[in-house]
Amino acid sequence: MPLKRRHFLWVILVAALLPFFLPFRIPYRITATGILMPTSEWKLVRGQDDSFTSEIHNYVGHSVYGLKNYRFERGDIASVFMAQACKQPGIVNKGDTVGIIKSHFLENEILRLENLKMVEIANRDMESTGEKEEIKRQAEQQVQIALEQLELERKNYSRQKILFEDSIISQAEFDLAENTYRLAEINHQVARTALDALVTGSKPAVINLVNERIAGYEREIRKMKSLKDEYFLVSPLTGALQFSHVTPDIFSVSDTSGLIVKCMIHPKYIPFLKEVTGIEVEIQGNGQAVPAVWIGEEESITLVDGSNPLIVRAMLPNHPEGWHSGMHVTCTIICQKISIFEYFKRNITAG
Q1: DSSP state, 201?
Q2: Tens digit of pLDDT for each residue in 153-174?
Q3: In sequence order, what DSSP letters do the residues of 70-124 get, joined into one string?
Q4: What tens digit of pLDDT does each residue of 13-64 get?
Q5: How far is it, in rounded angstroms, from Cα 178 to Cα 15?
Q6: Sheet of 239-243: strands edge to edge?
Q7: pTM of the predicted protein model
Q8: Where are the alpha helices (DSSP H) in 130-246?
């Protein structure tokens, strides 16, 4: 081999190896796919036992707080009714009432107590004024109305019992029919007792007893209405109201004041996540890189193929208009500077 050619090959070899030994250092970058999420989110979730749970998710601190569970009596039917202004997705403000949970049992119980209170008031008025004939006639009408309602509910209960025994209706539907029938029995008995008191007459001390019963009903009514007030759904956040059709969430309100990004790091890059100096986020195909503030590692998960990637999070203090929760983005994680030799070594190791 000619001498010049040999020298030329040595020069090429030295030039190729020289960068590996120079003191220059370059930042190591890891690219991953991520998804944008709100900084916090309020959710109303339906449980498997037909209960509801209100909860606030803090995605920055990775915590859940403000838990409130709504449970109902066996056989009760509870439904969520949205406020007129919140029947479609949109923006709601903190403190806005977005809806209410209505309990069939609670509504009936309040009505029953109100009726019992009115009966006792009528009894007291009768004892106080002596206008027995007119009040007696009204009491007889109440007995007749209660009896007709009882007969109607008895027929409905018998019909529902047959359907339940034939496994056509659910336990909850049968319980509702039974509860309604028992309530009609109670109302009829109350009306009958009130009429008997008018017919037989009362002792003077009965007015005090009636007043005590009225006060007792009023306490129970206040208690029930106070419980009903707890079922108003008031938003603790200002944000975007959304409805879910594929998860147990009834609705959610996402804080629109900021966004975070969650991205999944492949296991082969996890050892290199040291001394993260920055992170850049961009929408695929957009080319606009937005700086984010590193929050930290969250948790590792297990995929179907058995691998264990790591979830990491970062906050976007400022984001372009049009960016919103649920968008897929590309994340570039900037780690500490390393030598060129180490850079090529990592790329070869990571494959």
Answers
A1: -
A2: 888 888 888 888 887 888 878 8
A3: E---TT--EEEEE-GGGSSSEEE-TT-EEEEEEEHHHHHHHHHHHHHHHHHHHHH
A4: 555 555 555 556 667 788 888 999 898 999 998 887 778 889 999 988 888 8
A5: 91
A6: 63-70, 52-58, 40-46, 249-255, 239-243, 90-92
A7: 0.60
A8: 132-165, 171-200, 206-229
